[in-house]
Amino acid sequence: MRRILVGLKRVVDANVRIRVKTDGSGIDADGAKLGINPFDEIALEEALRMRERGDADEVVVASIGPEDVQQQLRNGLAMGADRAILVQCGDTLEPLGVARVLLALVQREAPMLVLLGKQGIDGDHNQTGQMLAALWDRPQATFASRIVLADGVAQVTREVDAGRETLEVDLPAVVTADLRLNEPRFVKLPDIMKAKRKPLETVPLAELDVDTRPRLRNLRHAPPPTRGRGVMVKDAAELVSALAARGVV
Questions:
Q1: Beta bridge partners of 203
Q2: Domains of the chain: residue spans and CATH
């Protein structure tokens, strides 16, 4: 079966103002709206379009986290995914740990393509896809703005500093989605109701026998410094003088 595996991460909604805990130990997500990482949502949309074009037979979404991450997986099923897998874990994993968990799922599911968002909007690591490809020993194409599947290869247009480049990678492969790849579809109420009847498998992390021990330790979180008030100047000369007084020019 031509299967696509899509990773979904639960994050604080992009429109929510992030708060740091008073003791600096992390982000205060209590009461905050949570949702699917926007780049992962784009990856899922692309997988669904591939299936609709006849390039794939099944789309499976997977996530790692506590039991209530099922809500985000159900949203993925409502978008159109065929089934979902939740790797139940109470800890926040580093990118390498996430990549190892995804590798275990890849070995179980044998997908022809793994689609991930290029990064999570919470940690902004941009590492998981690359690490998964290395562990899986398969090709990778990152920052995809266009993907075409044909004859066992994926032709991927990706955004780079100098513009765009097009790569051709053999399948199976790992591809990470950039912002311009597509615009995710709007989920309708009937689709939400249908999603409740779609299969969602829960797998305890311990069952996968994966080493997810952290290798880094966050010492402290702090909010960015508060921006000072602007200063009005009468003309360009006064602006230059003010900048010179601050040692900027």
A1: 87
A2: 3-245 (3.40.50.620)
Instruction: Single out the residue of 85, 77, 80, 42 nearest to residue 180, CA to CA.
Output: 42
Q: Tell me, what amino acid is at 104?
A: A
Determine contact, residues 198/73, Cβ cutoff 8 Å: no
**CB neighbour list of residue 157: distance below 8 Å, 6 or more residues apart:** 144, 145, 146, 147, 164, 165, 166
Beta bridge partners of 65: 88
For the chain, percent of residues with pLDDT exceeding 90: 70
Query: Residue 240 carries which side chain, given as an amino acid letter?
Result: V
DSSP, collapsed to helix, strand or coil, labels residue 163 as: strand
161-176: pLDDT as tens digits: 888 899 999 999 999 9
Q: Which helix (H) or strand (E) holds 146?
A: strand 140-150
Instruction: Return the minimum-mean-pLDDT range out of 56-65, 91-100, 231-240.
Output: 231-240
Per-position b or e across 24-47, b if 16+ CB within 10 A of its CB: eeeeebeeeeebbbbbbbbbbbbb
Q: Residues 8, 156, 100, 127: is their CA dihedral positive or negative?
A: negative
How big is the CA angle at 133 (ends 128 and 138), to the nearest 5 degrees?
170
Contact 115/4 with Cβ under 8 angstroms?
yes
Unique residue bearing structure tokens 């099944």: 58
**Which DSSP symbol is given to 204?**
E
Give the list of residues 6+ apart from residue 6 with CB closer than 8 angstroms, or none.
40, 43, 44, 47, 59, 60, 61, 62, 76, 81, 114, 115, 116
